[in-house]
Amino acid sequence: MNILHLSASKNWGGGENHIENLCRELQHLAPEVNNSVFCIENGLFQERLKSTNIKVVLAPLAFKMDPRYIYKLISVCKRKKIDLVHIHDTTALTLAVMADNLSNLPPFILSKKTSFPIKPRKQTLYKYNYPNIKKVLCVSKATQNITGEKVLEHHKLQCIYHGTNINFSEKAPALDLRKKLQLNKDHIIIGNIANHIRAKNLESFIKVAYELVHIKKLSHLYFVQIGAFTERTENLKNLIIELNLEDHVSLMDDIPKASMLIPQFNISLMTSQSEGMPQFIYESLYQRVPVVSTDVGGIGEIIKNNISGLLSPAHDIKALAENVQLLLSNPELREKFTTTSRETIEKNYTSEIMASQTLEVYKEVIYGRS
Known about the structure:
Blueprint: E1 2-6, H1 14-29, E2 34-40, H2 44-49, E3 55-59, H3 67-79, E4 84-87, H4 90-102, E5 108-112, H5 122-128, E6 133-138, H6 141-147, E7 157-159, H7 177-180, E8 188-193, H8 202-215, E9 221-226, H9 233-242, E10 249-251, E11 267-270, H10 279-286, E12 291-294, H11 299-302, E13 310-312, H12 317-328, H13 331-348, H14 351-367
């Protein structure tokens, strides 16, 4: 079984982490499956994969519809005798559809990893309903429901949660956050890992810091945000200055294997306004770090409010701050959440379970059976 994982992402995020986890788990679960990742040359994803034994095929993508990417995809499918193309982002979907119109490619599986509604434009509807897509794997039930509004053949939709990787141990990070940020033992670290994109709504993360530090006078709190800087970063830095939070908030840019730093957080804080199912949630729950989050996308499918974490509506700064304060003042509640959430992750939401379910879909599409 020869699987080609198609990515057109120039950055590293949860979607790329999913591809790496899937390929690694499949190597362990089903060695007969030959996985290759088709990704952009000189990109962050390529750099991250260098430290793995995952096969990589590089393609140029100077602009969104670069024909060199399309023709190389056609060539690789023929040369490697690819049985199935697993598409992992919307740009890759566009390029795959164009390639299939030029030369019949193997069947497609599409992973839908966000809860953004599919736009009702003719070209967009065409590619999401493209007949060579045999299955659409949705990262959450919320994503599946939203996708089903525009994908006509609902039998193609299937929810497979990505989960987190608990099988592959990695060395503890050399970075000590307290030492780097010159924090003493009394400081409480409120952490977040997310690239600086609109969906993550990091403005709310900073405003929650303001509410807790300056309104509620909790001066021992320190907010650490890790994620790739973008064109939005300058405005975030200006907001920190405007709210007089320079001594309480750090934006740390992208850090390789940032998830290994999660155990150094006292609380994980997610302020997204839109999500599929963030990897940061899975990893925090598994690492026994209590979570305060907005209830968007599939987050409420994993975290049960007041049972395994605390949820509130997006943009509700006061509610998010109150939930952080509640956790800080209630060690019994923190212990309850971390114990319950760790058990839930181990039982239902691991990347091993995700890979096993995905493998069954591969068999169904390729062989007509599960």
